[in-house]
Amino acid sequence: TVLRYLSALLSGREARYIGHNPAGGAMVIVLIGAMGLTALTGWLMTTDAYFGVPWVEAAHSLAAHSLLLLVLFHMGGVALASFRHRENLVRAMITGRKRKA
Question: Which tens digits make up the pLDDT trace of 44-57?
């Protein structure tokens, strides 16, 4: 479903959704995973067993930087969808209201 949506997006024929589109829904799951991994590796760095362990520090750095990149992609997707469907998605996120058609 996500790949079909992205294919339609590239050709300019993507459907409009009241909630998250398939790419946005997948992004939410990936963002939650990246946040969890960043938190877990950050916590591990505070423990006696993993304090100063190079692979934990590298994993934490990679997770944190990946999270930042994912957030930028998500913001780009929101901007693109707002432009393509001529609606303010940021306002819709704040108010919880979005036009039906």
Answer: 999 999 999 999 99
